[in-house]
Design goal:
Strand content: 15-25%
CATH superfamily of the largest domain: Metal-dependent hydrolases
Distance between the termini: 16 Å
CATH architecture of the largest domain: Alpha-Beta Barrel
Oligomer: single chain
CATH topology of the largest domain: TIM Barrel
């Protein structure tokens, strides 16, 4: 294993520090370090962060390899500064058995670019009718700890209660896609002034908020852990704030696009802006940003949702919802939060690693810590060209936008997966 000496990186935005990486860990830190056998990387002006961790990634494999594969998605993640991603269960076949989650986990190990941690389905086939093999997936080689029917809400409260009770046995988590389906039937975008002007069926904020409120109470009742996926409304923030005050074991995530983009973009009729949950109002965006800083929302998660051209480049009503996110998430965080490096490290690495139980990730570079880290050039700006993305899909809402920050290098257990902004393999 090659040793690396990173010279002069600002660890989480602090003073320039040398980092010696040897045998998969950060062996030494300080100034003026020397290691004749090490490959030297000049990191003057760069920021060293713990490798980013994504709680919400769609890798599409098995079943939709035309949109993404574990390998292509892992490469996109590494280029985005990630060292671990949690892969959602809505594959084909659905990741609702030990065999399928182990297949995804092994594919991630074979790719070797990031740690791929499968998320298991809550219900068989995501159908919301009977529980999947939660215990078997937890006991599998993949050691699944998060379960989600993302893309579908576990709408039946009895089924949700049973899922929360089952995962409590191994301190697992149910990650809920909060959407009361009877309130969103036929919905095309956020319900509000813009939907009325465009004549599109609206998706009311209360459809999200009522499920979060219900599930917080259920989680409290059974003493289990609940995670709320892609929070998108100001009302949801208030429900979560109240839940925190009550001491509920609830965590929550927000996507980069819900921190930046608004429902006004639906007026372009470009289906790249169609997403689930939908883009909301500027007031919602402001509330989400404030909640992220406050800590009511714990995590920035990408909800990286690649789609093949034939599924996305259609009329708005027929287009599949979802956006790419892995290769641009840190840039959006910098755009929204500025160079708040400690906050970014907490929301994009430490907190998601804690929630997912990924003990080798989410730790600031320090002696003895696994060398899962990323180097960022905060002074750089890059124009997003969809054809240059590593993902197999091209449905980015940031095409041709100039975004701050550039990932210069990413290390997974001491081995570079990205150097000089390019994937090593």
């Amino acid at each position: 294993m090659t040793a690396y000496l990173i010279r002069g990186a600002g660890v989480v935005g602090g003073e320039p520090t040398d980092l010696l990486i040897r045998d998969g860990v950060v062996a030494e830190t300080g100034r003026g370090l020397s290691a004749p056998d090490a490959t030297v990387l000049d990191a003057d002006g760069l920021v060293a962060l713990p490798g980013l961790v994504d709680l919400h990634t769609h890798l599409r494999e098995p079943g939709r390899e035309d949109a993404e594969t574990v390998e292509s998605g892992s490469r996109a993640a590494a280029l985005g500064g990630y060292t671990a991603v949690c892969a959602m269960a809505n594959t084909s076949p659905v990741a609702d058995t030990a065999a399928v989650v182990e297949q995804v986990w092994r594919s991630g190990r074979e790719a070797g670019l990031v740690d791929v941690q499968p998320i298991g389905a809550v219900t068989v086939g995501l159908a919301g009718e009977r529980l999947a093999e939660l215990g078997a997936m937890a006991d599998s080689a993949a050691r699944v700890r998060i379960f989600s029917d993302d893309g579908h809400c576990v709408a039946d409260p009895r089924l949700m209660r049973r899922a929360l009770e089952q995962v409590r046995a191994f301190d697992g988590i149910v990650a809920q896609h909060a959407e009361e389906p009877r309130l969103t039937e036929g919905a095309q975008m956020n319900e509000g002034v813009v939907s009325a002007r465009l004549g599109l069926t609206g998706w009311p904020a209360v459809a999200e908020e009522v499920i979060i409120a219900r599930d917080v109470l259920l989680a409290e009742h059974v003493g289990s852990r609940l995670h709320v996926c892609h929070v998108s409304t100001a009302g949801s923030v208030e429900v979560l704030r109240h839940a925190r005050a009550r001491g509920a074991r609830v965590t929550a995530e927000v996507t980069p696009h819900h921190l930046l983009l608004t429902d006004e973009l639906a007026a372009t009729d470009d289906p790249v802006y169609k997403v689930n949950p939908p883009l909301r109002t500027a007031a919602d965006v402001a509330a989400l940003r404030a909640a992220l800083v406050e800590g009511v929302i714990d995590v920035i998660a990408t909800d990286h949702a690649p789609h093949a051209a034939q599924d996305k480049e259609r009329g708005w009503a027929c287009a599949r919802p979802g956006m790419l996110g892995l290769e641009t998430a840190l840039s959006i965080a910098l755009d929204v939060l500025g160079p708040a490096w400690d906050l970014i490290a907490e929301r994009m690495s430490r907190a998601p690693a804690r929630i997912a139980g990924l003990t080798g990730h989410g730790r600031d570079p320090a002696p003895g810590v696994p060398a899962n880290l990323t180097l960022v050039d905060p002074a750089a700006r890059r124009v997003i060209e969809p054809t240059e993305l590593a993902s197999r899909s091209r449905n980015t809402p940031y095409a041709r936008m100039a975004l701050p920050g550039r990932i210069v290098a990413t290390f997974l257990r001491g081995e570079p997966t990205v150097l000089d902004g390019k994937a090593v393999r």
